[in-house]
Specification:
Blueprint (H helix, E strand, L loop, with lengths): L21 E5 L13 H29 L2 H27 L14 H29 L6 H23 L6 H30 L3 H29 L9 H9 L4 E13 L2 E10 L5 H16 L3 E8 L13 H4 L6 E2 L5
Parallel strand pairs: 3-4
Antiparallel strand pairs: 1-4, 2-3, 2-5
Length: 346
């Protein structure tokens, strides 16, 4: 059963000259996507710097991993490959998302970064599963591992990943792509720590299965990061409300504002990282100042929920007559299956 909210305010005499308002209003022209003022050009420079570090080290790590016969090093290189791919996807997506809206793409290509983030998440899940299988095989039948090579390469990887993490930490992490790349490199840093420990154990004790155990740690981190990306991008593609927002709370708050009778068809969704939209059908009490109420509701939404892209359709209550609005038939103005908020005080 849908929650219903109405205002407790008593109707007042109709005001003259009020008009039906259906507004699509990005309030105050607030920017989307760059929450702390980092420019897109600066983001690209930070991403390219991190990418150069990762690619150079990854190539060397594959060679050393083959020489040392270390699955942990090769799995680390695979993780770094996905990190590099995520940064490349982010760079391409940033370029596509910056294109202006045209033709049938009325929002432009702003969801390109969500597509790339989801692709990166799938890649992480696949690689994580492969490395889990290979690690299980090596736990049963472990090969000889050169612990000295493993330890030296892992310590170098820690330094490289610290530099790459620092570079990405300066970019705009409100973007799902940038944040995803940052988390991947951070996870890779933890993986190198595990690999270094494995190399030290092999050197000092001869326990070669430590390499496979470190590989399992790397694989679990990859699976965790991949699932997180799939979950977040899936919410966006399914047009779910951002996890930090509760539509019912927003609907109740809007319905409780002066001059508002009911709120129907409230929808909150995220087009892409940092670009949240809201639409609602608002029924007003007779005699309300439609323009003033619309502006007040938009200010409330922006101030309390940081949503700057709102579409509010205003009407008088169904069956009630108000100059400037006329009579409204609920069947034509509201989706009978959509959210419908009414205060119990009414």
């Amino acid at each position: 059963m849908a929650m219903v909210f109405t205002s407790s305010e008593e109707p007042r005499p109709p005001a003259h000259g009020e008009t039906h308002e259906h507004d699509h209003h990005p309030a105050h022209g607030a920017p989307h996507g760059h929450g702390h003022g980092v420019s897109a050009d600066a983001d690209r420079r930070y991403l390219i710097a991190a990418l150069a570090l990762l690619v150079a080290f990854m190539a060397g790590e594959v060679v050393v991993g083959v020489i040392a016969r270390s699955l942990a090093l090769i799995s680390d290189a695979g993780h770094m490959l996905t990190d590099s791919a995520s940064i490349m996807f982010a760079l391409v997506a940033m370029r596509l998302a910056a294109r202006p809206a045209r033709g049938g793409f009325t929002y432009g290509l702003k969801r390109a970064e969500i597509l790339s983030a989801q692709l990166n998440g799938v890649t992480l899940l696949v690689l994580g599963a492969v490395f889990c299988y290979e690690a299980a095989v090596r736990l049963v039948d472990p090969p000889e591992v050169e612990g000295r090579w493993v330890l030296t390469t892992a310590l170098t990887g820690i330094v490289i990943n610290l530099a790459a993490t620092w570079s990405l930490s300066r970019a705009d992490r409100s973007s799902l792509n940038v944040e995803g790349a940052f988390q991947h490199i951070l996870n890779d840093l933890f993986a190198f720590v595990a690999t270094a420990v494995a190399g030290l154990v092999v050197m000092t004790t001869g326990f070669v299965r430590a390499d496979a155990v470190a590989t399992l740690v790397v694989a679990v981190l990859m699976l965790k990061a991949g699932w997180g990306l799939i979950r977040e991008t899936g919410r966006i593609f399914l047009q779910a409300a951002p996890s930090a927002l509760v539509p019912g709370e927003i609907g109740a708050r809007l319905a409780g504002q002066p001059g508002v009778a009911e709120v129907h068809d409230l929808h909150v969704w995220e087009l892409t990282s940092g670009f949240i939209s809201l639409s609602a059908h608002v029924f007003l009490l007779p005699g309300g100042d439609a323009l003033g109420i619309r502006r007040r509701l938009q200010d409330l939404i922006e101030r309390n929920y940081q949503i700057t892209h709102t579409t509010l359709q205003l009407d008088c209550m169904p069956g009630e007559q108000d100059e400037g609005f006329g009579c409204v038939d609920m069947r034509h103005c509201a989706d009978p299956h959509g959210p419908h908020y009414r205060s119990p005080r009414r």
